[in-house]
Amino acid sequence: MLGPLTVQTDEGPLRIHGRRQSVVLAMLLLSADRVVSVDTLVDAVWPDSPPTTARNQIAICVATLRKTFKQAGVDDLLVTHSPGYLLASGEHRIDVTEFLEKAERGRDAARHGRTEEACALLEEALNQWRGPALDELGGERIEVEAVRLEQIRLDLTEERAGLMLELGRHRVLTGELTELVKLHPLREQSREHLMLALYRSGQRAEALDVFRQGRQLLIKELGIEPGPGLRQLHDLILKDSPELTRPPTVGTMSPAPVRTVPAQLPADIMGFTGRQAEMAALDRLLKEPHRLHAPAVATIAGAGGVGKTALAVHWASQVADRFPDGQLFADLRGYDEEHAPVSPTVVLDRFLRALGMPAPQIPAEPDERAALFRSILSTRRTLLVLDNVRSFAQLRPLLPGGGQSVVLATSRETLDDLTGDYTALRIRLRVLAPAEATTLLTKIAGAERFGSDPVAVEQLGALCDRLPLALRIAGARLAAKPGLSVRSLVDRLRDQRRRLDILSPGEGGVRAGFRLTYRDLRPEAALMYRRLGLLRTADFAAWAGAAVLETDVWHAEELMDQLVDAQLLEVSDAGPGRPARYRFQDLLRLFARERAEADEPPAECDAALERAFAAWLWLAEEAHRRLDGRAYPVGRAGVPAPAHLAESADELLATPSDWFESERATIPDVVAHAAETDRARYAWALAESAVPHFETRNYLEEWQRCAELSLASARRTGDRRGEATMLRLLGSLAIYQRRYEQGEGWNVAALRLLRATGDVRGVALAQRNLAMCARFQGDWDRALEYCRAALEGFHEAGDTGNEAHLLGFLAQIELDRGQVEPALPLAVEAVALSRRTGSVRAESQSVYRLAEVRLLAGELAEAAVSFREVLQLTRKEGDRVGEAHALRGLGQTQWSQGLLAAAGETLQQALEITKELADRFLYARVETDLGCVAALDGRDEAAERFGRAHAAFGEVGAQLWRARAARLLAAVRGDGGECGGVGGDGAPQRSFTADQLTLLLAHAPD
Which residue among 58, 408, 800, 941 is least crowded, i.e. fewest CB within 10 A of its CB? Predict the structure, then answer.
């Protein structure tokens, strides 16, 4: 940039197309490693009247630049970072950065008396220039930066000239300085250096003529006489003073006045703990080259009590000696319960007095006072710590104009107006890490209080939200009361009604800090905050805020972002491309709930909760419907979409399985909340809609928690249909976990209630479950009886999906009975029927049954095709359980075909998923197949695998499969007896064919 803008790669120059791209790139380069807002880029490209599409055009420019750099092999240079973009310099070289770094190193060498080194470094810095900075690029912002860089270059040229004069190299300077004075005739320092160089070169008359020409020009152009430096040098030349024959010492010609050095920092924080990453980031701020016309500013934002002031004061105390011109501190009282925020004009008065300015000379006009403050700091290296800043308007008059001073500001808000133009660093302070919280408690209360109960101290930190203010209050309470045990304090804090009281002694503490932030919220944002506090979920999406406030999602998101800016909410990491999710710290949630109960009638709070539960239920049912393809997902009449969700439903449920996954942890919390408040209908209906997702992802704990809580609520409220439905779901879970006797008990109880309520489809579902229990217990006649009854019920209810599933199940029973021929048409019919439903899940289950029939019928090629189809369907839906079953079936088909290497790879994939799902039955099935692969390949590991399968089948009570594993194990070991080998002569054998292993697998019926 020190000349025309040029991008150079190892292969040669890289062409940047057009002025707009060049201006955008230049602005990003000038603030390398710092965020430049889109508004700043728009202003740089279109300084007068930007088009309405300006922001979009900036995005296009950045995208084109990225493409250009990617073609050169660089794809990580330009980073999107709210509210704009950042150029990550990394290992790339920027001439401006190198110029400023070498300049600073040269100046540092000069300050320490290393004149020769300083002169060489400054010359290296100046040699970076290829012409006028950012030549050929226009626009006010670019021109301001170009002027700034040119000013630094001229200053550096003069400083180098002064160093060369000290070294006695005056003769080589005369030509260079003559050209410099010609180009910049009003710069008195250049003229002074030229006069001295000429004089020492024996050109006394020429030196006096330089003074005469300069004086005439200053009088003519500016109406002023030359400054004291030029006049003093002129007089010394006239006198041929011996002072001019030796290099000047510091202060010879213009001694510096004595200045007041303020040291206003408060005392360092006792027991300061943690924050290493933030301290390191602030340390890096000191290493960055200063910008002549823009101050280095760091902001620390965070909730009340999170330790913003502590961090600012602690860091400032550690680096105070790096600021020889002093440290200024002011509490701007932006969040004070009793006092209004301090006016910047008042702070400027205090600062100017501290800097040595006599009171009569301090201007009364605010703008003049700020200008004087900037002028004084322009040549000083001062640290300004501005605590509790309320707004950018309060902060702006207190910012230096540039130079080497550093500003550190704390605020509960993010002060986004600073971004790009000012801020070198933004720190958003979070609560302490668990280990740091423990350390802080130990420092305050004493290590001896916690040595005997480390678990309690960890719990104490969690109950304080690891918020430094709360931790200090809890630690101080323990320190002041030796008789109070840590466990006792933990028990008291567990009471959510008392926690804020304990951590808010008197009128202060945690509650006071929260109250100040809440007081300053806009009314609608305050309403959103306290109603969100009614929820008991770990996190929530913007649509939940829309529900409690009964507004649209976009408006809710705006209000929730205001709460984020006020540090009352946090944005959870939802992952790339996913909608933002929000969460409370526990103490902030308790305060929000307090405000809801104090500021709103109970009926309003109840109505807000009802809307939230209704929103979760409608979205779950709608997501289920879109996945399942049926009119209503759970056989009930659908309710209209809530008004606040109607327009955004398609976006929220674009991928229904992703929506369920995003709400995986939330749904059990909502079910628990609805159940505990005896809103049983919401609890059990939401549980029923979520269970299919829990099943496909093997989320068994969530399944059980939802069903048990809903069952208890339904029984308390007399909701018999809900009770019956939850009994059936618990029965399904028991079957899924291979606990068939328990599953049968749950379903028999459910069937009795379902018949009494007239729920035809529910009765059929319970009968299907009982058929599964009978089948796995080997009672095929009873299984068939239940199947036929369930089939009639599904047909009557119009439940085509479950009708198809049951046909596939009937095919499986025929296989169990060794009747392959009648199983095939049943499986084919099940596939055709399931495809009519539009349900991917129903189709994948039916195709899987068909694949198993084809495998046992010996149609191996067709079976492989079907298993691969199941694999494609389950992966599309994110159904990990179905994927594992499909891989296992495909692996068995492959070893049956003699494709041992392919079978091993396929089954290894299945094994990894079974471990991930912690499904011991499926794990044992896969180990069995891997044992078959090893046996066919003649490897000794076959016995180990069959042994592991045998043990796992025993764990889950799958006795028939356990017997099969035992038979296989005996065969590969060569044992005789009941499970002996299958050689033609009756002798045990160690080599097998696929047909022999298939016979062993089928020997004990399933």
Answer: 941
